[in-house]
Amino acid sequence: MTSIVPNQWYVAGYGREIGRREEGGDLFSRTICGESILFWRTQAGALTAMSDRCVHRRFPLSEKPSHLVGDTVVCGYHGFTYGADGVCVAVPGQTRVPRTARLRSYPVVEQDSFVWVFIGDPDKAESTRIPRAPWLDQEGWTVVAGMEPLAARASLLVDNLMDLSHETYLHGGYIGTPEVAMTPITTEVDDEAGIVYVSRHMDDAECPPFYAKSTGLSGRIARWQDIEFAPPCLYKLHSRIAPVGSVPNDDGTDPDAFHVEVVYAITPETESSTHDFWMVARDFALDDQGVSGFLAENNRTVVLQDVVALDKLEQVLAGEPDGYQELSINIDTGGLAARRLIDRLAGERAPAGAR
Amino acid sequence: MTSIVPNQWYVAGYGREIGRREEGGDLFSRTICGESILFWRTQAGALTAMSDRCVHRRFPLSEKPSHLVGDTVVCGYHGFTYGADGVCVAVPGQTRVPRTARLRSYPVVEQDSFVWVFIGDPDKAESTRIPRAPWLDQEGWTVVAGMEPLAARASLLVDNLMDLSHETYLHGGYIGTPEVAMTPITTEVDDEAGIVYVSRHMDDAECPPFYAKSTGLSGRIARWQDIEFAPPCLYKLHSRIAPVGSVPNDDGTDPDAFHVEVVYAITPETESSTHDFWMVARDFALDDQGVSGFLAENNRTVVLQDVVALDKLEQVLAGEPDGYQELSINIDTGGLAARRLIDRLAGERAPAGAR
Amino acid sequence: MTSIVPNQWYVAGYGREIGRREEGGDLFSRTICGESILFWRTQAGALTAMSDRCVHRRFPLSEKPSHLVGDTVVCGYHGFTYGADGVCVAVPGQTRVPRTARLRSYPVVEQDSFVWVFIGDPDKAESTRIPRAPWLDQEGWTVVAGMEPLAARASLLVDNLMDLSHETYLHGGYIGTPEVAMTPITTEVDDEAGIVYVSRHMDDAECPPFYAKSTGLSGRIARWQDIEFAPPCLYKLHSRIAPVGSVPNDDGTDPDAFHVEVVYAITPETESSTHDFWMVARDFALDDQGVSGFLAENNRTVVLQDVVALDKLEQVLAGEPDGYQELSINIDTGGLAARRLIDRLAGERAPAGAR
Question: In angstroms, what separates the C-alpha of C34 from chain B's closest C-alpha?
Answer without folding.
Answer: 9
